[in-house]
């Protein structure tokens, strides 16, 4: 069986798709599984995954922006003669066009949960339930497989920064929307305490879009920090996070990267619902502001009388004490 999975989405969405791939491989061991992602960077998320046979790119903002290029991709997919398509982008007409390339193949469709709280991982698994896969009983672990090159890169980086043998804390200060972002000053104060009180090596991580935030943190504290924001590939970042004792992050892609490589997360949630997108596995901690009645509002813009109060009121002291507790908790989470 030849299976096409369509998901040109963000980092977290793609990682939360990894249990679907694992379940399909277990259910149909000899299937050829092809994943269609949205850009070259996303390819890294499946590059070393033994359950993925091929990764294709649908770059709707770049190479496939024109209808001519889109039709060319359609023809490329048509030549592969898929037997099953799982479309995780049902709201996008162009992904439906790409799905028709497999006609008369069977098409399964993802429906985002409405008026019920179900984690995105289980919700994604519901799309393949018609194949006899139980969304609740399936393994919910996120998976990111690292290559030897990335492992060596991370070891070399940490050795060069003199961080070998120290507990490492990675701080991810960026977010896709302001409602997910903990204040910059809070991150700076946390970095100082992690270094001074716990002896942690502190790393700043994130994408190129987070450079301004990282610069504000780095220049605002005397604490030595290793600034990796926008300076790693996804796999290099995964390798670094796998060597950290803890990651402090809002509801963003690096949070899911950390859980996928088995690192504990202290997740800071405000507008978004951890019941939907929280870290998967044991040993993680979720912090939400107490006494803010609109949490979680599930909105992308804040209309509260005190803007972003839900993130402002997660105190540095609460995050620090939670990190300290996590560092003293022993083994890494099982991710089960």
Report on the architecture of this protein.
The structure is a single chain. The protein is globular. Helix 4 runs parallel beside helix 5 (93-99) and helix 8 (184-198) crosses helix 14. The chain contains 14 helices and eleven strands. The chain starts with a strand and ends in a 9-residue tail after the last helix. The chain has two domains: 2-131, Rossmann fold; 148-327, Rossmann fold (3-Layer(aba) Sandwich). The chain has helices spanning 11-15, 18-27, 40-43, 67-79, 93-99, 120-126, 148-160, 184-198, 211-220, 234-242, 253-260, 274-277, 309-312, 316-327; strands at 2-6, 32-37, 54-57, 84-87, 106-109, 168-172, 201-204, 225-227, 246-249, 265-269, 285-288. It is α/β, with parallel strands linked by helices and 336 residues long.
Main attributes?
globular; Rossmann fold; 14% strand; disordered C terminus; 14 helices; alpha/beta; 336 residues; 11 strands; five-stranded parallel sheet; six-stranded parallel sheet; single chain
């Amino acid at each position: 069986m030849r299976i096409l999975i369509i998901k040109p989405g963000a980092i977290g969405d793609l990682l939360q798709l990894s249990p679907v791939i694992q379940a399909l491989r277990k259910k149909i061991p000899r299937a050829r599984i092809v994943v269609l992602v949205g850009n070259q960077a996303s390819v890294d998320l499946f590059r070393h995954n033994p359950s993925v046979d091929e990764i294709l790119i649908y770059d709707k903002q770049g190479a496939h922006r024109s209808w001519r290029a889109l039709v060319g991709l359609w023809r490329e997919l048509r030549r592969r003669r898929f037997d099953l398509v799982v479309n995780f982008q049902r709201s996008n007409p162009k992904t439906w066009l790409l799905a028709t390339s497999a006609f008369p193949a069977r098409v399964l469709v993802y429906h985002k949960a409405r008026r019920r709280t179900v984690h995105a991982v289980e919700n994604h698994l519901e799309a393949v339930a018609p194949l006899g896969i139980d969304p609740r009983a399936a393994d919910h672990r996120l998976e990111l497989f690292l290559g030897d090159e990335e492992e060596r890169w991370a070891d070399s980086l940490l050795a060069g920064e003199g961080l070998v043998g120290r507990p490492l804390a990675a701080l991810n200060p960026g977010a896709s929307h302001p409602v997910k972002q903990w204040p910059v000053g809070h991150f700076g104060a946390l970095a100082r305490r992690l270094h001074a009180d716990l002896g942690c090596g502190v790393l700043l991580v994130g994408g190129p879009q987070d450079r301004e935030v990282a610069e504000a943190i780095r220049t605002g504290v005397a604490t030595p920090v290793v600034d990796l924001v926008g300076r790693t590939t996804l796999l290099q970042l995964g390798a670094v996070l796998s060597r950290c004792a803890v990651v402090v992050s809002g509801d963003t892609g690096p949070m899911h990267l950390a859980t996928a490589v088995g690192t504990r997360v202290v997740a800071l949630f405000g507008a978004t619902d951890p019941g939907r997108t929280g870290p998967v596995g044991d040993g993680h901690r979720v912090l939400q502001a107490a006494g803010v009645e609109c949490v979680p509002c599930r909105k992308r813009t804040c209309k509260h009388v005190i803007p972003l109060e839900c993130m402002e009121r997660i105190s540095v002291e609460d995050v620090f004490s939670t990190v300290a507790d996590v560092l003293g908790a022993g083994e890494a989470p099982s991710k089960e």
